[in-house]
Amino acid sequence: MRVFISDLSSTFGEQLTTYCQEAEIQVVGAIASKSQQTLFKRKLQAYASSDTPDAVKEPVALLSDKPAWSKLIQKSTIVVVTSLANDTKLAMEMLKVHEKRDDNAGEDNENDEAVKRKFIAISSILTWSKNAAFAKEMSPEGPVPHHEDEFKTRKPARKYAELKTAETQILSANRSDELETYIVAAGLVYGGAQSNFHMVFRDAWMCPAKDLLVPSIPGGGVKDGMNLLPMISVYDLAMLTFRLASAPAPQPKNYLLAVDNASRSTTLRDVCCGLSILLGNGKVRDVAGNDEADELLVEEDDGLVAPLQLHLCFDTQEAVMNQLVAPDEWKHYETGLLGNLSFYVDDFIQAMDLRPLKTVVLGPPQVGKTRLSKKLARDYYLPYISMQSVVDEALPASEYEQQRQQAIEDGTEADENATPSAAPQDDGVDEELKKLRESLREWRSANKQLQELPEVLVIDLLRWKLCSASCRNQGYVLDGLPVTEEQASKVFAGLYKANGDGEDGNDGEGEGDNPADTESNDKAKGDDAEGAGEDGESGSLSLGKSRSKTLLAQLRPRRQVEAPNRVIVLHAPRALLESRAQQLSEEDAIATANTEAAFETRHAEFASQIEAIATFFETKTSVTAVDATNGIEVLELHLESEDAYRDAETFHDAIKNYLEQGGKTSKPPCNFHPTRDETRQMQREFEAKRRDDEVRARKQAAEQEEKDAVDQEARLAAERARLELIQREETELLEARAKPLRAYLMDTVLPALTEGMLEVVKVQPDDPIDYLAEFLFRKGREMDAAT
């Protein structure tokens, strides 16, 4: 037997491959990415089933290479299309190839002649989207769920009509003596990287400080996310498909429902509440109105939003899925997503490679810790933590200074040491934060510097911040802390014990209050007040709702100080550090504790403590569930000059490689950034920069053109002046050369010529020219005789 899987790289495909290979069934298939082809080939060939004589030498083909995957299908007994909804055309092409067996493939299938060929398409419950929530709303026993036998009555929304058509064509291709075709109508799939709940998992992980939005679009049949969601675990779906593929006998039905039993009582709101408890602040909110609903539909992929609007209830107790799979083989059929939410939160984090980068940056004063920390926080979208930022967050908006400023403006300045009233600002704040705020107010009332915070308060503040959901989900960058080995051991107390037990009740999961209890209770009261409500629910469905509320009440957020998994230590020569400190103004030096005395103290403390701190992180063992490490490999960088900070290989690339190591792929850790808003903001900034560059370029061009015109005019004026000078010089030269000639003419020629001209005038001869010539000839002889 050989099974062809249409997408080996999906979570479902990988899990189905595991089940098949454990049963020594050969697996071949296709993938979309060429870069993964070699990887999956090695995975398939790692099992014993690939060592048989009839094993396929090239078991992995690209989806873009139809001849290659067609040959694999022709050599396979069973074809599994992992997602009919994603590409119905591709599924129909694969069905046609599977129907027309290649005669040349006979040798590869001699051992499979007794096994009937099968074509299994994993479809979706979305083709029921226009059906009522229940098969019968009113009956003596209460609402009656839909059953598997009713599949011919399913009514899809227009967008899913093509999917239903493909299902019908596949079912029609069934031939009792040649080919068995099956449609597995899966509920909304949870688990792995292709979950239908990707959006709510992502939002809960990304924005833990915000109330989680329940993506229920107004105008539907059910308000506020109270719609029942038919669901199935990806691991249970893979088990069902494996049992169907390997079953020796034909099944009584060709259309199979795949919906877990817990879905009969689990709503969208239940899922969002549970995720908010485990990943966020424990609160949810509804879509504010049509504007926000429209924005949600525009911003998010329709394939993520539309499935969450389903309101359907199915009873699969007597369905084929429970005949194929034994009760003890199901992983989460009875308990469902809500009953195993902690597992699926960790599963989502691992599947999406959401590695929280919990980074500590240490170094002597003026080595560049803050600049590097802020850059890492910006580049990797991590919370930036310094002592100042934690104080500002614990006591927000400089509360004390604001009160004093208000008093000055009102003309009733309070006493200098007065403590501001905390009552209005502390409403809704947990007891731990209230205590921290009281301690901070006492410290501020004494007008002390940040460096004068009591050590106990420093540790409590850091532990409070490191327990936050944002640090748990995304990670953090801790700037310059801890400063001593003793402080490190107190901040991370209980996290490095071999048994993993914390020292106090706040460390570990399952401690403290459930922040969603009020939300759940309020909804519960509302549901009880409705009684039979719109759907007339009662009996077992009411018990199911109570079960969901009980499961929600049992969830507890993980309140644990998040230990670092990256430690960067910067070293630099003292002369360089002192030179930097000397360049600070007096005010900055005081504010940053870089006066001469403070610098000396801090530098000496770093030199005496850094080896012990590094050893502390390197030798301890973290026992956190998702990010377990056997100590931390500390990255120490020695920067001998200012040029070393600009060196890409020894500084920037070294830090980048260190932070991004240890993932499932060579890519940086996934953090869902940039978001669409951030992408649009970057696009707007890019466009604004482009427009500014264009305006600047046009301005520069105009200025250059004006300058060129002025330069050209100056060159022309200079040329004119040069020509005038040349002309004047030539004129003077000609005049100088003509002066002797004029003198000669005036002395010798002109007197005789003038006299001859006058004589011509007096005589007026008939031929004046001849007369003048004779006169001049005669005059010349007289002048010769005179000389």
From TrEMBL:
The protein's matches in Pfam families, at most eight in alphabetical order, are given as: Dpy-30
Q: Does the keyword Protein biosynthesis apply?
A: no
A GO BP term here is: nucleobase-containing compound metabolic process
The biased composition feature labelled Basic and acidic residues covers: 674-711
GO MF annotation list: ATP binding; nucleobase-containing compound kinase activity
Region feature (Disordered): 400-430, 499-544, 660-711
Keyword Transferase in annotation: yes
**Keywords per UniProt:** Kinase, Nucleotide-binding, Transferase
Acidic residues bias: where?
501-516
What protein name is recorded for this chain? Answer: Adenylate kinase
